[in-house]
């Protein structure tokens, strides 16, 4: 089994957390009290695309363009499926436009397992954007795309306490 690829299938947990006391060492109990979204997101519904600006550090006498790492941004879009019954429409009801919450992401471990101390986590403090209702498509479920505005420093290397 050497040299096997690491699969993403079923190994990503996405939790919306309303109360979080420590972004770098989030308590497992607070993460487990959140709302798991991974079974509501479309297969390609977790869109986190980090980017980093460059800082030009060249001088008048430079013969090459040089730069250093600048500020980073975390554009986040979630695509989730609508549910027929109001009580089952958890993503739509949880991700209310304007609501501030923390989006916690765990990769490389079965999503059914609870958050435990030592888990690696990505923690994004976000404000939920407006619902972007997608056009109906034959033979597909109804979907919402929703931008999450990262309003404070994220910790993409957090470890669960």
Mean pLDDT value: 95
Helix content: under 10%
User: How many distinct beta strands?
Assistant: 10
Query: Which structural class is indicated by helix and strand composition?
Result: mainly beta
- Structure annotation, total helices: 2
Termini distance?
32 Å
Beta-sheet strand percentage? 35-45%
Specify the overall morphology: globular
Low-confidence stretches: none
Task: Evaluate the radius of gyration.
Answer: 18 Å
Biggest sheet descriptor: 8 strands, antiparallel
Order of helices and strands: EHEEEEEHEEEE
Explain this structure to me?
- By secondary structure, the chain is mostly beta strands.
- It has two helices and ten strands.
- Strands 1, 2, 3, 6, 7, 8, 9 and 10 form an eight-stranded antiparallel β-sheet that branches. Strands 4-5 form a two-stranded antiparallel sheet.
- It starts with 11 loop residues before the first strand and ends with a strand.
- 23% of the residues are buried.
